[in-house]
């Protein structure tokens, strides 16, 4: 007996497929369905045609089914077919259905026997079918033929696994009876995804083609490779019957007669054949739908909630909605910019820096680096200080460093800050524009709105950039207006002069303070060609050298009293740069050497050592000529004054650099960043609002997307309405009346103490009167019979009559 309550569930799924057929592709809502799996020539097509009662599937050699065919059988008074890709076109001629399947297959895959995962949806209405939804997949093949791809077996298996791996899919494993069941490709794939056999139905075909003396009795009685849902045997039309256009109704009658007359199958004829397969499939599918319907409903509700907000934003049919959308977009744009700068974004970027982090890097890394670049060359700076002192003294010989020389050098270095400060502002401006552009994604849907917004915001940024540069220029002019030598961090004359009464020199460092460390080569000491390297340490009082930089083995300490510096010119082939140190009183400098010849690896290193020696009071012994042709006479008093001014300039410029490192980030944040944020938050919308009618025109892609979202939203609501109406009115379906095999377990016992196991279906009475043994229904020595429930035994359903 059929169950109207359960059968009504399958039209529910069919109506859901109609409602969601255009929108479920990306949602992965796998509707309950039966997937037909089998090898080539296993009889899959014949089984499907017997279920429908018509010839409609393409036939031929090789791979004929090259695209999944979603076949939905619906009970109706009239017979016709309808494809989803050409709705409204009813096919009453099933030969034309076959031609349409072939044409639609070749439309995507061509004629080279390739396969595609895009399904063909076909509805068959007929009074001779029960409500079923099946999926026919390409037959499993081992070897590519002709121009098929070399990996055709892999492609087919991958396509099959895409369908059968889902838990709410019933697998119809079709296997011919004249092959070894243990080698069945269909059962092997089913076992991979359903090892317990809880959702696999076995269909045994070609029973009439088995060798004489053999039968599939053990398989059909579910005693060999048992499945929980069991096996059903069918007899399809032979190729001779197909060529002779034998009517399917006659084939079904012949199938019924075969089972009734065959000695091995007549005791189970009532649960064999295509009509019984139809009934079992319908019951299993109905139960499966009943089990998965709550989860399916939750999925639909979850996706509907995800679409609600976006669908609401896309309702732009009236001016009020357009105005609201414009306001929401600008507010969202302002919030996104604020989050990017403040670092409060919902999605934290773990790949690179952006927004506020990039600005912070410019503030605290790039700005100090740019300020360091403007520091003058040491030798050039000392020369400028020397000229300033001598020009200020004029014909007089100055005993003390003049203040005007200090101010002249300081003001010149302060004026050099204009370039790094402007470059700093340019970097902030560039990064601010980049950050703003990251927030334009939401406005992409409205090209005109984005273009106008970008124009207004960019104009505001450049306007604030000019204001910021003007303000920074004023800050520099303020620093030039007054040199504050009374600053608490400034080291003045009284703090820097240290008079050494022994040699009457003024030092900028303490006696024990290290001025410089580094490697130098002694080229005139030892027997080694090219000299030997030592680790040198220069202080205000001495020059010491060690064996290595660990400074454990001191080789010698040379006092700096009466020492002079002299350049040494080597040949053009020399790769080193030399200078020497000697005593003005002609005393030995080291052991029996009158001078110490030292070498460096580069000119920069040589100049750096010279400057360090100047700071320690070791000066050149002769006239030097600068790049402008001016002669420089070495004067110890002048050099000491230069050294004093040099340290005063360093002290004051460190204050200036510290001030600008602190003030510049604050200035650009106030004048540029915060002003732009405030403009977007409070003024941008008022400037865009008068142009709202033209700015809110969507792009073609956005219009299509909006239609798609609204259509999906409407389809999900309709699908939920269908479930709401049906789920409350259909009673719970009874258990399926079919053989089931429970997984055996040594721990599982029934109420009477015997291990639990589902019983095999009771044979008909005429079989009991013959030599039937209870042992013939045992699956194996390790499996047991589950006790039969109390109450009257359920009678086997009558064999459906086929008209």
TrEMBL record:
EC number(s) per entry: 3.6.5.5
InterPro entries according to UniProt: Dynamin, Dynamin_GTPase, Dynamin_GTPase_CS, Dynamin_N, Dynamin_stalk, G_DYNAMIN_dom, GED, GED_dom
PH domain span: 513-618
SMART domains the UniProt entry points to: DYNc, GED, PH
A Pfam family of this chain: PH
Region (Disordered): 731-803
CDD domains assigned to the protein according to its UniProt record, in alphabetical order: DLP_1, PH_dynamin
Compositional bias (Polar residues): 741-752
UniProt keywords, alphabetically: Cytoplasm, Endocytosis, GTP-binding, Hydrolase, Microtubule, Motor protein, Nucleotide-binding
GO annotations of cellular component type: cytoplasm; microtubule; plasma membrane; presynapse
The organism's place on the tree of life at top rank: Eukaryota
One of the record's GO molecular function terms: GTP binding
Record keyword Hydrolase present: yes
Localization of this protein: Cytoplasm
Keyword Nucleus recorded: no
Domain Dynamin-type G, residue spans: 28-294
Example GO BP: receptor internalization
Domain GED residues, every copy: 642-731
Family label: Belongs to the TRAFAC class dynamin-like GTPase superfamily. Dynamin/Fzo/YdjA family.
Name under which the protein is recorded: Interferon-induced GTP-binding protein Mx
Encoding gene (name): dnm3a
């Amino acid at each position: 007996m059929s169950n109207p309550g359960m059968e009504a569930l399958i039209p529910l799924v069919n109506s859901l497929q109609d409602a969601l057929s255009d929108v479920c592709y990306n949602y992965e809502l796998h509707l309950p369905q039966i997937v037909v799996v089998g090898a080539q020539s296993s009889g899959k097509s014949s089984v499907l045609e017997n279920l429908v009662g018509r010839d409609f599937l393409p036939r031929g050699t090789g791979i004929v089914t090259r695209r999944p065919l979603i076949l939905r059988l619906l009970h109706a008074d009239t017979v016709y077919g309808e494809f989803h890709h050409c709705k409204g076109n009813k096919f009453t001629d099933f030969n034309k259905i076959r031609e349409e399947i072939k044409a639609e297959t070749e439309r995507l895959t061509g004629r080279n026997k390739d396969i595609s995962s895009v399904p063909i949806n076909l509805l068959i209405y007929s009074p001779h079918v029960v409500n079923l939804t099946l999926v026919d997949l390409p037959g499993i093949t081992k070897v590519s033929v002709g121009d098929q791809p070399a990996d055709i077996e892999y492609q087919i298996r991958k396509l099959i696994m895409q369908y059968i791996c889902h838990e709410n899919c019933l697998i119809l494993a079709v296997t011919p009876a004249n092959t070894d069941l243990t080698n069945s490709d269909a059962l092997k794939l089913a076992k991979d995804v359903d090892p317990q056999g809880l959702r696999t139905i076995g269909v045994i075909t070609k029973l009439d083609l088995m060798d004489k003396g053999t039968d599939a009795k053990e398989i059909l009685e579910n005693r060999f490779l048992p499945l929980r849902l069991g096996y059903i045997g069918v007899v399809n039309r032979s190729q001779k019957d197909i060529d002779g256009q034998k009517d399917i109704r006659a084939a079904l009658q012949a199938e019924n007669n075969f089972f009734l007359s065959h000695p091995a199958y007549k005791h189970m004829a009532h649960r064999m054949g295509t009509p019984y397969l139809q009934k079992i499939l319908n019951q299993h599918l109905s139960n499966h739908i009943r089990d998965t319907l709550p989860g399916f409903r939750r999925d639909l509700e979850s996706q509907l909630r995800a679409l609600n907000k976006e669908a609401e934003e896309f309702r732009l049919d009236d001016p009020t909605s357009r105005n609201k959308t414009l306001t929401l977009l600008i507010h969202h744009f302002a919030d996104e910019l604020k989050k990017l700068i403040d670092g409060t974004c919902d999605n934290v970027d773990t790949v690179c820096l952006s927004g506020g982090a990039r600005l912070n890097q410019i503030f605290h890394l790039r700005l100090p680096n740019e300020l360091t670049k403007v520091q003058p060359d040491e030798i050039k700076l000392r020369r400028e200080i020397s000229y300033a002192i001598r020009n200020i003294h004029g014909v007089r010989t100055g005993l003390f460093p003049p203040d005007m020389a200090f101010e002249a050098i300081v003001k010149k270095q302060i004026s050099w800050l204009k370039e790094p400060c402007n470059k700093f502002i340019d970097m902030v401006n560039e990064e601010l524009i980049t950050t703003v552009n990251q927030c334009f994604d939401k406005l992409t849907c409205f090209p005109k709105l984005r273009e106008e917004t970008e124009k207004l915001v960019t104009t505001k940024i450049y306007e604030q950039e000019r204001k910021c540069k003007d303000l920074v220029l004023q800050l520099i002019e303020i620093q030039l207006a007054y040199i504050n030598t009374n600053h608490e961090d400034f080291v003045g004359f009284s703090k820097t002069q240290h008079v050494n009464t022994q040699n009457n020199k003024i030092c900028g460092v303490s006696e024990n303070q290290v001025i410089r460390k580094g490697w130098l080569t002694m080229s005139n000491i030892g027997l080694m060609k090219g000299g030997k390297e030592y680790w040198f340490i220069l202080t205000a009082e001495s020059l010491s050298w060690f064996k290595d930089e660990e400074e454990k083995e001191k080789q010698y300490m040379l006092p700096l009293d009466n020492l002079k510096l002299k350049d040494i010119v080597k040949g053009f082939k020399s790769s080193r740069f030399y200078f020497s140190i000697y005593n003005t009183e002609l005393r030995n400098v080291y052991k029996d050497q009158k001078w110490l010849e030292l070498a460096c690896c580069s000119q920069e290193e040589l100049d750096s050592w010279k400057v360090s020696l100047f700071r320690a009071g070791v000066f050149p012994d002769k006239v030097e000529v600068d790049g402008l042709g001016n002669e420089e006479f070495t004067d110890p008093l002048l050099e000491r004054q230069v050294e004093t001014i040099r340290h005063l300039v360093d002290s004051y410029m460190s204050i200036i650099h510290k001030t600008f490192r602190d003030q510049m980030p604050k200035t650009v944040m106030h004048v540029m960043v915060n002003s732009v944020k405030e403009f977007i938050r409070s003024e941008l919308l008022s400037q865009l609002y008068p142009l709202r009618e033209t700015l809110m025109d969507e792009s073609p892609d956005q219009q299509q997307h909006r239609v798609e979202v609204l259509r999906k939203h409407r389809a999900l609501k309709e699908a939920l309405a269908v479930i709401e109406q049906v789920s409350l009115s259909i009673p719970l379906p009874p258990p399926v009346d079919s053989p089931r095999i429970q997984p055996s377990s040594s721990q599982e016992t029934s109420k009477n103490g015997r291990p639990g196991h589902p019983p095999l279906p009771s044979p008909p009475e005429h079989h009991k009167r013959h030599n039937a043994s209870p042992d013939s229904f045992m699956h194996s020595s390790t499996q047991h019979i589950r006790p039969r429930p109390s109450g009257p035994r359920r009678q086997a359903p009558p064999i459906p009559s086929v008209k």
